[in-house]
Design a protein that fits this description.
24% of the residues lie in helices and 39% in strands. The protein is α+β, with helices and mostly antiparallel strands and 88 residues long. The protein has a 3-stranded antiparallel β-sheet with strand order 1-2-3, with no helix packed on it. A two-stranded antiparallel sheet has the order 4-5.
């Protein structure tokens, strides 16, 4: 029973360390203001069953860098060639 507990602990530690190693993507700081830090990164995702196709995805990370609870809200505008799509 004691050996099984050690094995479980070792497996858990290996799993957690792999999460910290593989979660180190390069983020670019976009803006830091009023205790909020906004970063982004671009990810290229290949399209299945296509030899030359891919999608670009932008991922955003919003961090609270204070010890207080903060609220964040935003408006989403989609721009193509200098023209806002879906804007009022």
């Amino acid at each position: 029973m004691k050996q099984k507990s050690y094995q479980t602990t070792i497996l858990l530690l290996l799993f957690l360390s792999s999460l910290s190693l593989f979660g180190q993507e390069k983020w670019t700081l976009y803006k830091e203001t009023d205790g909020i830090k906004i970063s982004y990164r671009k990810e290229i995702c290949p399209i299945p069953n296509m030899t030359k196709g891919s999608k670009e995805k932008y991922l955003f990370k919003i961090e609270n860098i204070t010890d207080k609870e903060l609220w964040v809200s935003w408006n989403f505008h989609f721009w193509i060639n200098g023209r806002c799509i879906g804007c009022d």
